[in-house]
Structures are given as C-alpha cells and as structure tokens.
Amino acid sequence: MMDNKPEACSVCFIDYDDNQLRPRNLPCGHTFCSQCIDNAIKNGQLSCPSCRAQHTATAATQFPISYAVEAFVRKLKNIQLTTEEVVPAKPSEGPARGISKTLRSLVQEQKNIISSLITSCEEVLSQLGKYRGQLGDWKTHHLQLQDRLYALLEENKSAMKLLELEDTSVVDMTTQGEEGKTQLQAMLGSLDTVNTPQEVGTTIDTADGCKMKVEDWLQKCQELFPDVKTVHTSVKVQETIREALEMMTTETGATADNVHLEDSASSIMNKVQEITGEIPRKPLTVEDLRRMSEPIKRLVEASRVLAVKRLVEAGRVVAVQEDQDGRRSARITLQDGQLYLHPLLRQPTPADAHTLQESEVVGVLDPSCTLAFLDLGWAGSTRGRVTIRLTPDTPLARQFVLLCTGQRGHTYRNTKLLQVEDKGEPGECVVGGDYESNDGEGGAPLLPDLQGQYRESAQAGAVLAWCELGGPWSAQFAIITRDDQDGDQWSDVFGDVVSGLDVVRAAVNHSDITEVTVVDCGVVLPL
Predict the structure, then answer these.
(1) CB-based contacts of 295: which residues, under 8 Å, 6+ apart?
(2) Which residues, 6+ apart, have CB-to-CB distance to 5 below 8 Å?
(3) How far apart are CA 158 and CA 476, in angstroms?
C-alpha cells in the first residue's frame, strides 16, 4: 500500500509538502509527515504506525527531515508537469535527409547546447532543492532557539519573583528590628528615671520582655537570611543570560557586508557553506589551530573555529614542505581533543585540503614540553599508541623529533623493533629505530653532535640511546620495560613513556619482536 504512492504520507494519505507535511524519518526507518508524527506523540511517547516501535519525543522536529523523499517528490512532480504540458511529437529519426551536412552540424550543435543547458538546469534545480531544505532546517532551528529563549525569560521571571518575595521578607524583618531597637532605647531612658523599688521591678520586667523579642528577632534573621535558593537561582540565571548575551554581541549586518563570494562558479550549497563558515573564506593559519583549544565568546569566531575543527576531523588539513624533489605532506589529526602531526611523506595532497607550511606548524613546538608518539602494530593491526615526553633542549630529543616528523627525509615510520634485551629479567628493554636498513645494521645520526647533558635511569618507561653517541647507529633507541632497582643505571636517557607502556610490554611478549612495526609516528602539537 505504501509503495503505491510513495510521495504521500501512509497515515493521512496526503502528499508531502515543504511546510506542515514535511517527511521525517523515525529511528526505526519509516517515514511519515510532520503533522501525523505530532498527532501521534502522546506524553512524550511515539509508536510507529508501521512497525509499532516505541520512540521518545516531544515534537516531530526532533526527527530528521527525509531529504531523499523530498527530492523524489520534486522529481516526480517535474515529470508529471512535463508529461502534462508537452505535446508528444511524432517519432523522428533526425533531420530530413535533404538537409546538408553543414545544416545537420548546426542542428547537432544546437542539440548539444540545449542538452548541456538541461543538465545545468537539473544541477541548479537540485542545488535549489537542497538550499530550500537547508532554509527549512534553519527555520526549525530558529523556532527551537525561540522556545529556548522563551524558557530563559520564564526562568528570569521566576528568579525575579523569588527576589521580590525575599525583598518583602527583608522589609518586614527590618520594620520589626527598627521597632525593637526603638523599644530598647526607650527602656534605657526608663531605667535612668526609676526612683522606687516598685518602679525598678516593673521597668526591669518590661525590659526583659523587650530583650526577648529582640533576641528572637536576631535569631530569625540568622535563620532566614539569605535564602539559599533565591540567591543561587538569581546568580545562575544572571550568568546564563550574560553568557547568552555575550555570544550575541556580533553585529550580524556588518558581518554580512564583509562576506565576498569571489568564485561565482561555485555551487549554491558551497556558497552557503562559505558564508556560514563551514568552508573558511580566509586561508588557514597555525593560529586557527591554536584557537581550537581557547574559549571563544563571539559567534563569528566560534563559527570559524568550528569550521577548522570539522576540516581537521575530515582529514582536510595537512602540513606541507617543498624541496628540490617536490612536495611532501603530513597529516594533522584530532583525537581526544589533542592535535597530532604525522610524518612528512611523498603522497598526493587531497584536492580539497587546506595546507600549512610544515616549518610554521613545527615552530609552535615548545622545547620544554615536546611530546612524540609511536604507533606499534603487529599481526596486521595497530595495537596502540606510545607517547613519549622528551627531555628539553637535548640533541637526542631533537633528533627523535626529526625522525618522528620526517623533516630531514627519514622517519621511524614502517621501521621494525629489532631485539629484546634481558627478556623477562630486571632491566628488560626493547630496541628499535633503524630507519636505514631496518635490520639493526643502520640508523645513522641526523645531527653532527649528539653530546649533551643526559640523565641515567633504570626505571621502566625510560627512553635512551642504544648505541654510542656519534656512532653509525646513533639513531637507534631503547625503551626499558622492567625496573631494575639493584642493577646498573642506563645512560643517555632522553625521554620517558607517559602513556602506552603496556603496548610496549605487549610487543615484547609477542612471539617474534621483528614482526612488531612502528606503523606511524609523529609529535603532539601543544596548541
């Protein structure tokens, strides 16, 4: 029954439209018009008319609009309109045989132009349909925001009523306090004028009564004021409204005047995304990345930060480096709120990517808190990330960063772990880092002088140079996986594992350590 007329709601049998009867998808997969969904919602519950699945909702606007159904309905209406308006022509096999080749060429040229225009019309009509759907969504969002603003105003009214009640109570207690104070002052005067024992007794009794009343008043003031609910509600509502107003300080008219869409050939929806900030109009900068972790108060700034975040999450932000051999690019990724810079590789840069210079990105690294990472994997899958905090301002740490980022053309990426020393014993460690031959016979230093002030350690997690500094294998490193409290200290320690030591230990316990690979590496961007 539903398939016989897919352009109509299967409950009310009325064709979908762009207003109250917009098609919306329920979580169970069935589609109905907004009006029927609203009618079916009772006490926050909705039972699907088709499969009887239960859903929680208070309004149809909580379910997504079915743009596919809307596009189908528009296309179906266009087909019907064309069928009704166009008078079928007699079948023709083409121009009459008597037409010359030149005229036939002109006819074919006109046909090609018209076909191209038809295609263009279809594309723009499709864009207009999507744009209208976006406009409908925005109208819905405005209504939802309006409801939230009304709710905020109601909260403000409730807070004002509490303040008025509290103020009335304070006025009443103030009046009582003033009266008590006046009576006590009068008692002082009376006590000064007593002349007989009888007057003394009477005056003291009266004063005792006044004292009790005032003491009771003082106790009530301590108990009643301030009213915690009133003060807390007032402060929280003020903070909420103030934050909302600060977010609304943008002069939307001035902002709109500053928007310039230079590429008139862009699609309608691309222009919409450019205006809304989903596609940043200005070139990306390192500052844009840094601002992702900062509190943003203005709507325009928040829009750009959100756009940059979406680009990073979509893998469309890369760092590039140009040299005599061409371009290399490095991915920038976002995970758990942290930005990671991966190694430079000779790989195609995505056509829609936003690029930053590698030197600018690496330039934000703070020498005092450089973090590098190694992703270890074996048996065809990545097993985990090892994050290493490098000792500040040491040549070995700088060399490690160079081999994690690939700035000098070489990288630890796709290198094997080479061996396990003292396996199962105190001081156990694993060795890796041969970026040249990948068998332990390579790993030349990248810096001319690796000498520096390094510490000693025998604690698990310490990262150190495996070979003699300046030797032919000075890029190889070791990670201690078992403490050795009573043994010799390892020298030339230039870092410590801050997370992922369990991954290294799992690699050590793998049947063949040479099957464990550094599948990826890089540095953490402290933005």
Answers:
(1) none
(2) 13
(3) 68
The first and second tokens of residue 96, run together, are 């009459």
Spatial distance between the Cα atoms of 206 and 203, rounded to a whole number of angstroms: 5
What value does the mean pLDDT take over residues 27-45? 86
Task: Tell whether the model's pLDDT for residue 475 goes beyond 90.
Answer: yes
The pLDDT > 70 percentage for the chain reads 86
Give the tens place of pLDDT for each residue, 110-145: 888 888 888 888 888 888 888 888 888 878 878 888
- In sequence order, what are the residues at sequence separation of 6 or more whose Cβ sits closer than 8 angstroms to the Cβ of residue 176? 217
Residue with tokens 């430079």: 344
DSSP for 384-401 reads EEEEEEEPTT-HHHHHHH
Assign 98 to helix, strand or coil.
Answer: coil
CA angle at residue 312 from 303 to 344, to 5 degrees? 145
Q: Is pLDDT above 80 for 89? A: no
Q: If DSSP codes are grouped into helix, strand and coil, which group holds residue 523? A: strand
Q: What one-character DSSP code corresponds to residue 514?
A: G
**How high is the pLDDT of residue 392?**
85
Distance between alpha carbon 419 and the CA centroid of its chain, in Å? 41
CB atoms within 10 A of CB 173: 15
| Whether 249 contacts 298, CB under 8 Å | yes
For 146, counting Cβ atoms within 10 Å of its Cβ (0-12 exposed, 13-18 middle, 19+ buried), the class is exposed
DSSP letter (8 states) at residue 225: S
Whole-number average pLDDT of the chain? 84
Q: What is the pTM of this model?
A: 0.52
Could you give the 3-state DSSP secondary structure of residue 127?
A: helix
Between residues 292 and 415, the one the model is more confident about: 415
Q: Are 481 and 429 in contact (CB under 8 A)?
A: yes
Number of helices and strands in the chain (H, E): 12, 17
In the predicted structure, residue 164 carries a pLDDT above the cut 50: yes
